[in-house]
Amino acid sequence: MLSMSLSLVAVFLPLLLMGGLPGRLLREFAVTLSVAIGISLAVSLTLTPMMCGWLLKSGKPHEPTRNRGFGRLLVAVQGGYGKSLKWVLRHSRMTGLVLLGTIALSIWLYISIPKTFFPEQDTGVLMGGIQADQSISFQAMRGKLQDFMKIIREDPAVDNVTGFTGGSRVNSGMMFITLKSRDQRHETAQQIIDRLRKKLAKEPGANLFLMAVQDIRVGGRQANASYQYTLLSDDLAALREWEPKIRKALAALPELADVNSDQQDNGAEMDLLYDRDTMSRLGISVQDANNLLNNAFGQRQISTIYQPLNQYKVVMEVDPVYTQDVSALDKMFVINSEGKPIPLSYFAKWQPANAPAVGEPSGTFGGFHHLL
Q1: What global pTM score does this model have?
Q2: Is the dihedral of CA 62, 68, 73, 76 positive or negative?
Q3: Of 152-156, 187-191, 262-266, 319-323, which gets the smallest average pLDDT?
Q4: Rounded to whole angstroms, how far apart are CA atoms 102 and 119?
Q5: What pLDDT score does 371 carry?
Q6: Do residues 262 and 359 lie in contact, with contact meaning Cβ atoms separated by under 8 Å?
Q7: pLDDT classification of 364: cutoffs 50, 70, 90
Q8: Which of 90, 179, 193, 223 has an alpha carbon within 20 to 30 A of 236's alpha carbon?
Q9: For residue range 300-316, what is the model confidence (pLDDT) as tens digits?
């Protein structure tokens, strides 16, 4: 009794020590069962023997239970067990072969049965993350989003698709896909993802990583996959060197699909360099030049229009037609202290450069996250 109870408590020990969100959800369950087993053990070793000694006293002789209905059934079961045991002992070679076959079947089932940390749900909703070329423009990224949405809408199991681009990264976007009800489709969510993956791979310059939305999601970061692997280092150069190698090794594993990373260090940007001596001679301050660029490209909010049922933000910017390439800077003029327009190119020069790496810090270390 003692060994059996301790074995049951050991079964729930991993749940007691599990961290993260799953550990918080399962800790009460594990504690309740462990305490219940402990109380049952204490009662069995202390109270039960004393109650048996007090209550189970010899009384009047009674008819043996084997002569009753349930007793006769028990005797028949015991007799059948004895006959089967004798047969097994007489055919020991066949019994050994059956034992080996059972062990082999158990090993095969352990290898072949799908295994996962949590059983995958089919909630009827898919979430997708778009990752495009790091130097892509917002307008081109919007076209990629529309292409992906068109491909997904054509799938017979899809009911509705919504998506957006932008945010902190121009080359990224999100997509939410609502599937039809289970009585209107014959595939699971994962089967639909596998089918769409082949069609979405034909879109050049961008990738869409799909996954089924789960009620219990592991990890605290927004990601393009179900599992995350974080690579940490206090040396950013070492991270940039080893991240592609590790990602390539993970992608080579047949068990993994849609391996991607949030490392992005080849984004395109334009650096503007001011000639402050020339600016002082022309009567232009750095603030004047910065205000010009902010008004033209920063989507500056200058006012709010109030209506009875809603309010609307007034944003000042140049026409998007003039923001497609760097030639727009040649047409910019700054008003100096004397009220004269001075071309931006008179006191500034610009040159293309790579954007800094995009990696979410983890504590005091830099880090990149591999998404599987």
Answers
A1: 0.59
A2: positive
A3: 262-266
A4: 26
A5: 57
A6: yes
A7: very low
A8: 223
A9: 888 999 998 899 999 88
| pLDDT tens-place string over residues 7-47 | 888 888 888 887 776 777 788 888 888 899 889 888 888 88
Instruction: Tell me which amino acid residue 126 is.
Output: L
What integer is the mean pLDDT of 356-369? 50
Please calculate the CA angle 287-289-293 and round it to the nearest 5 degrees. Answer: 115
Tens digit of each residue's pLDDT (9 = 90 or more) over 209-242: 998 888 776 665 667 777 777 888 788 788 888 8
Q: Using one digit for the tens of pLDDT, what is the confidence trace for 262-288?
A: 777 776 778 888 999 999 999 999 999
Residues 199/158, Cβ–Cβ less than 8 Å: no
Report the alpha-carbon distance of residue 152 to residue 170 in Å, rounded. 22
CA distance 292 to 286: 10
Q: How many residues does the chain have?
A: 372
CA distances from 158 to 125, 161, 173, 225, 320 (A): 9, 8, 19, 20, 34
Spatial distance between the Cα atoms of 335 and 284, rounded to a whole number of angstroms: 8
Instruction: Give CA–CA dist 199/182, Å, rounded.
Output: 22
Closest CA to 213 of 301, 96, 126, 87: 126
